[in-house]
Amino acid sequence: MSKVLHSADLFSRLVKVTPYCLLALLTIPVLGGLMGVMLPAFGWAPALNKTNMSLAGFNVLWDTPGLSQMIGLSIRTGLISTLIAFALMIIMLAAFFNSVWLKRIEYVLSPILVIPHAAAAIAVSFLIAPSGLFTRLFSPWLTGWQLAPEGSLPYDAFGWSIIIGLVLKELPFLLLIALGILAQPELGKKLRMQHQIAINLGYYPMVAFFKVVLPNLYPLLRLPIFAVLAYASASVEMTLILGPNTPPTLAVAIMHWFNDVDLTLRIKASAGALLQLAITVGLLLIWLLLEKISAMIFSQSLINGRRHYAHQLVRAFTYIVTCVILVFIAAALIGLVFWSVAGYWRFPDTLPSSLVLLHFENAFTHIYTPLFNTLVVGVVSSGFATILVLLCLEAEQITAKPLAKWALLIIYLPLLVPSIAFLFGIVWLQQLLNSQHAFFNVIFVHLLFVLPYVFLSIADSYRRLDPRLARVAASLGSSPWKVFIQVKLPQLFAPILIAMALGLAISFGQYLSTQLAGGGRIATITTEAVTLANGASRRTSAVYAILQMGLPLLGFILAWGLPRYVFNNKQA
Amino acid sequence: MLANKFWQTLSRYSLCCVAFCICLIFSFKSLANTQLQSRWQQVESSGKDQSVYFYAWGGDAQINAYIQWAAEQVKAKYNIELVHIKLSDTSEAVSRVLAEKSANNHTQGSVDLIWINGANFAAMSKHGLLLKDWADKLPNFIYTNPENNPSVLFDFGLPTQGMEAPWGQASLTFYYDTLATSSPPQTLNKLLSWSKANPGRFSYPKPPDFLGMSFLKYALVVLHQHSDAMLQAKLNQPANDKNTAQVLDPLWTFLNKLHPNLWRNGEYFMQSGIQMRRLIDDTELSIGFTFSAPEVPAAVKRYDLPKSIRSYAMADGSLSNTHFVAIPYNASHQQSAQLVADFLLSPAAQAHKQKTAIWGDKTVLIQTSLSAEQQGLFKTVQPHPSALPLNSVKRTLSEPHPSWVEAINTGWETRYGASQ
């Protein structure tokens, strides 16, 4: 008995410490990273023999030709792509809520989640380019084109190509998060029941979704949406491949300044990174404002009792949009597969003139080390992140105090700070500590990006756990440790697995962080893919994109398959 | 009689003197030689059995395979573990060394050896990030015949000061799709008229991309071919406020005429030479260019370009330069890195690299300074139909002073960087 008590105390004490560990883990590198950007932005860069604090960096920044166009493009693409992705996710959820189609759509969309942004951008650009698959289907028999025609997509000045690319990448993420929330036994069941009741009351299913489910669902979706919005406004990979470049988005310009051989441009780059931070924060505020406005407009209509709003039209629109998206994604995937085995494939041929395995053979000769590194870094970082997040959430329940608002903000900091600038600061910090352990450094930095997503993915499920079960177990004499392991974790089986899979996918997809923190010494599938995508062919990129999809996809298949298998066995 | 004796004695003394001097000179020379030798012996003994982290662009499978081959060779020769860190942009390695310097890491640097081009070299040497006085002391360096071959001592006009060892040579090579155009333009002027006749079928990567900048430098040098000597000489001097407009104006005039006929009307520029290659494969472009001529047949063999591609050199000249490897000042394995650099300069390694099936990069060694046996290593085989025909570079154009890169870049950015 005393032994049990002792271990229980130890567990509770351990658990209570974890939130502080989590916060320290995120605060120190993030603040350090920010310092590493702030100091040069204000002119302090000893390596460049500049030690006078000044606003010179900002003055140079304001004089950049086309700066306002860059800012406009960043804001436009970030906001519009997030709005569209969010709207599409909502109408798809609404139209297919409680239908088997939702699961099917999810299966089709989820591979997109794990395609690295660069590869997805290449796949999208192949579809919409003048020499792309769509034009090839109609050439030359209809158009008479023997050479690719002139076109305006991708690289259009407004940024529509970027928006298309981002929407295709963000929609699956948001949908997956929403389904993760709906997969919680209690909440999901409650919402489905309320939805059914509303339908029984004569509400059309989509209307019932908007009036009953959405108001309960949206607060849980807010942070993932913020992550998406912040990412979209500051992303580099997609905008680099799909966007215009006279001028590019601000984030891409900053990256070029950081990479320029003229090392003094780093001062301007650092100033630009702070501007990017301001823009991203501004966008989040705009979103909050939009939220308030729409709440004001629609609060009345929630209870006005109207059963339908041109629902036929909305339904038809949703079906068409869903089909278009699925066709688009299917075409992109088919394109990827064809490129990975294509021999010569000159415009206007719809199909490659021959199929070869050469590109796969070339990739497989150098794959073992990167594959090993990818798996080790991914499993360690997402495993550690999951454990840490679970303990933190348990601490919340033991102390009955939710994490403070500012603590939440810290968890999301790595997703809000433009990563290139912030990573440069982290590398500087790691150098200060003279840390030579490349593996440790990489895992540590991956953790910064994995933790928020794992937290996003589990937190709400954990907080919505029915407390009565835990209370009953405790009143029967179970120790907190036993309650945690035997009562809480089994209920969270599905969300935990999905969070792990998401963590793995995030870790697998990291490029800049792996490259910078590891000093380039830790080659992963993604670093190889991006290096080759910048250098080699669309064919090689396609091979790596397929490999990159394969790995996390395995994770997700396990995450969905295991709970079913376990529950089916239990029922049997 | 006395006088006779005096002269005899004097001549004997002077003979002795001369002999002594000769001895002295020889002993000094041999002393210097033994010093060099003992220096190298020391490098050899302390450089063995270690790892060398070689930061080099990793975007080309052929080059990666060559570096892999070199790794096997130095493993066998010196038991050195040569690790190729594949970069997508060399400036990543520059950033790394810079971050290390700003964090006061002056001895434990992670970059041991770095493949570098003129612009990165200028930046790194300006900020004191490179190890000095080692490259010209490599045993294999004499095969480059440095007295008569200044290209191995200067990088974009800057003296290398022993901070980098030459590795290979490249020149701007054009290639075109024979199914799209039968007579590609052979001069800069004809390129302008060709693009008027074939709008949207030519473009160049956006500066500061290395290849795009090379095209602009090629155009600049060619446009000044008939300028007076005073103006031409300014290309080899640093750019300043006074001469910039005078030197660059012909370039802007030319680009103003060229841009409306470029791909996407000159409103979007490619990011890199590789994107250009992809657009030629997609038939959106009909003419492209590269600084690495063997890339073209390699891409055709890998199916990345159609079989209808042919390479050629411009008749009005090809911009040429030498590329190098350098050692950061804080490299952890400086001796080992020198052993690797010396191996890369060896006739065997240079000959292997020059084979078109391997890499096709032109050697920096001068044939006359090699033995007959060493020269035999460089014998060539029948080139691929899409490869640049041998000896087709008739005129080489040397790089202007590196400061022009920034001047061109700034001018380009203000004129064409923000369209609409």
UniProtKB/TrEMBL annotation, chain A:
Keyword terms, alphabetized: Cell membrane, Membrane, Transmembrane, Transmembrane helix, Transport
Membrane topology value: Multi-pass membrane protein
Family, similarity comment: Belongs to the binding-protein-dependent transport system permease family.
Top-level taxonomy: Bacteria, Pseudomonadati, Pseudomonadota, Gammaproteobacteria, Alteromonadales
Domain of life: Bacteria
Subcellular location: Cell membrane
Keyword Nucleus: no
Transmembrane intervals: 20-45, 79-101, 113-138, 158-182, 203-221, 269-290, 316-347, 367-391, 403-426, 438-459, 492-512, 542-562
Gene3D superfamilies, alphabetized: MetI-like (1.10.3720.10)
Presence of the UniProt keyword Transport in the record: yes
Name the record gives this protein: ABC-type transport system, permease component
Coarse class of the protein's main subcellular location: membrane
Segments forming domain ABC transmembrane type-1: 71-287, 371-559
UniProtKB/TrEMBL annotation, chain B:
Signal peptide per UniProt: 1-32
This protein's UniProt keywords: Signal
InterPro entries per record: SBP, YnjB
One Pfam family in the UniProt entry: SBP_bac_8
NCBIfam families: PRK11622.1
Name of the protein in question: ABC transporter substrate-binding protein
Organism: Pseudoalteromonas undina
Lineage of origin: Bacteria, Pseudomonadati, Pseudomonadota, Gammaproteobacteria, Alteromonadales
